[in-house]
């Protein structure tokens, strides 16, 4: 596990978009969410953390180590992408073990690590099944198993539930929260869905046009918005929650 400290990060693209002068300190073992519309800078920030992008300015620290220019493979992070990025010609075992083999783990250690990861995501005994035979929810869990199999210090998730239907999204969200709590891994989650962020995260960064408008707990974001944008962005969710409370 690791504490993540982002200091004054700026990453802008010639075609527009990116993130501007952003700072946040994410605690060891925290579930932290970046929330905002498409193009707000949340995925750019995630890519800077994992090392897929180098910032124009600012620094990224894991604990006391400056990793700003460190390549992704030296950061001990794992990322779950929106499209899962699974290999369709491989079975579940080969997909989950891919990162372990890339890290040159001894063969006799790979099978137990894969079995552990598949048990955690409730796909044990399915390791020989090909991913093309799986439902969307099962594919999402394979991607998650591949990420946690490497025992990352930081788990990064980029809109991992957006391709699931509403019912499956709800149940998978619950499983994801339970898994993160069980593992105790620092988790950083990107989403445009207010309900997801409020349900999963200990704290949330609300972003717009590359600028962070507020960092706070779900209660603070809902009930003490720091800007007009945050208030307007969260208004529908607040109305829904207030209605539920009043109906009880």
Can you describe what's shown?
The protein has about 250 residues and is α/β, with parallel strands linked by helices. It folds into two domains: about 140 residues, P-loop containing nucleotide triphosphate hydrolases (Rossmann fold); about 70 residues, no CATH class. The protein is about 40% helix and about 25% strand. It is built from nine helices and ten strands. A six-stranded mixed sheet has the order 6-7-8-3-9-10, sandwiched between helices. A four-stranded antiparallel sheet has the order 2-1-4-5, with helices on one face. Strand 1 and strand 2 form a beta hairpin. Helix 2 packs across helix 3, helix 2 packs parallel to helix 4 and helix 3 packs across helix 4. The longest helix is centred in the last third of the chain and has 18 residues. The termini are far apart.
For the record, the CATH class of the largest domain is Alpha Beta
β-strand amount: 15-25%
Query: Whole-number average pLDDT?
Result: 90
Number of domains: 2
Poorly predicted parts: none
Q: How far from one another are the termini?
A: 40 Å
CATH topology of the largest domain: Rossmann fold
**Structural class, from secondary structure content?**
alpha/beta
Counted by DSSP, the helix tally is 9
Order of helix and strand elements from N to C terminus: EEEHEEEHHHEHEHEEHHH
Radius of gyration over all CA atoms, rounded: 18 Å
Question: What can be said about the biggest beta sheet?
Answer: 6 strands, mixed
Helix content: 25-40%
Adjacency order of strands in the biggest sheet:
6-7-8-3-9-10
Q: Overall 3D geometry?
A: globular
Q: Examine the secondary-structure arrangement and name the CATH architecture of the largest domain.
A: 3-Layer(aba) Sandwich
Overall number of strands: 10
């Amino acid at each position: 596990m690791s504490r993540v400290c982002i200091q004054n990060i700026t990453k802008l693209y010639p075609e527009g978009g990116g993130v501007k002068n952003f700072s946040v300190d994410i605690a060891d073992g925290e579930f932290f969410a970046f929330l905002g519309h498409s193009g707000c800078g949340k995925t750019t920030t995630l890519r800077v953390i994992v090392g897929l992008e180098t910032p124009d300015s600012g620094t990224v620290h894991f604990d006391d180590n400056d990793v700003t220019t460190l390549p992704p493979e030296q950061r001990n992070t794992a990322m779950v992408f929106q499209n899962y990025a699974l290999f369709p010609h491989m079975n579940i075992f080969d997909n989950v073990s891919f990162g372990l083999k890339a890290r040159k783990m001894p063969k006799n250690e790979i099978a137990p690590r894969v079995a552990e990861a598949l048990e955690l995501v409730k796909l044990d005994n399915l390791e020989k099944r090909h991913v093309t035979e799986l439902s969307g929810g099962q594919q999402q869990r394979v991607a998650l198993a591949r990420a946690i199999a490497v025992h990352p210090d930081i788990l990064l998730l980029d809109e991992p539930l957006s391709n699931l239907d509403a019912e499956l999204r709800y149940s998978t969200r619950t499983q994801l929260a339970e898994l993160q709590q069980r593992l105790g891994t620092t988790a950083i989650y990107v989403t445009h869905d207010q309900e997801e962020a409020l349900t999963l995260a200990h704290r949330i960064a609300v972003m717009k046009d590359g600028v962070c408008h507020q960092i706070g707990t779900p209660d603070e974001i809902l009930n003490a918005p720091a800007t007009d944008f945050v208030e307007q962005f969260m208004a529908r969710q607040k109305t829904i929650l207030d209605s539920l409370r009043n109906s009880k």
